[in-house]
Amino acid sequence: MLFQSVMFDFQAAEKLRLQEPVSDIGLEPLCAMINNNLRCYDLSTELSNSTMEALPQNYAEQINFEDTCKGFLDVAKEAVRQTVNVIFEDPGVQELVAKLYQKDWCEGLVTEYLVETFSDYFTDVKMYIEERSFRRFVEACLEETIVVYVDHLLMLRTYVKEETIERMRLDEDVLTDFFREYINVTKVGSRVRILGDLRELASAESVDSFTLIYTNILEHQPDCPPEVVEKLVALREGIPRKDAKEVAQDCKEIYENSLVDGNPPKKGFIFGRVKSLAPKSMWRR
């Protein structure tokens, strides 16, 4: 149908625009794109329903509006992701993120300031987009925050100390307290949980502790490669090489035994996006 072709053309133009640098698009146009495409989704769904009801069944069966309608949701979803990128490409945010797990971070001069910046952006975004979209935006921002924190932890080149562990614990509280003001606390907890798990890994005292914690991580992040454990073990001072090798081997076996047809049973939201991990885990060679 002609109007389906027009809808596809519109979606293609929107997707092309979203390929531009977010600094060129801007926050307000991205928010407008979210609103417009969700509105188009609602209207196209109404049109689909009314058209299908009006047509005889043998004609209605020949028409598929599903892909057309879904296309608007896909554009809106990508626009939400790019809106989050506006925040993380902010020079001030990048400056703070670069200090993660460094001296300023240990002194409480990073995470607290980061959530203040988030708050300013959230105030602006909330004025521009509908509530349902705003919640999705906040969830996406939280997930990106967790990915960034995990990535920088795995890129550490200095040993983890007691003050590092304590600051990690405080970060979990700061992030949880901030994001729970905007979205369901259960959703916040399910995202922040991995930070606590990695903190426990970074402070584990025995081979059994490492393997138990890693097993628990795989229950909610099945694509967490054993390389993560290896990196955290390497950040621990005083762990005998023999124990480190045993942990690595045990976790490799645990991971491989969890695979289904050679792949994790499902993908989490973190480890496929963590830049410090090789695209293909060393264990899968």
UniProtKB/TrEMBL annotation:
Keywords: Exocytosis, Transport
GO MF term list: SNARE binding
Entry's Gene Ontology cellular component terms: exocyst
The keyword Transport is assigned to this record: yes
Keyword Transmembrane helix: no
Coiled-coil positions: none
Annotated GO biological process: exocyst localization; exocytosis
Family: Belongs to the SEC6 family.
Name assigned to this protein: Exocyst complex component SEC6 isoform X1
Organism: Iris pallida
Organism lineage: Eukaryota, Viridiplantae, Streptophyta, Embryophyta, Tracheophyta
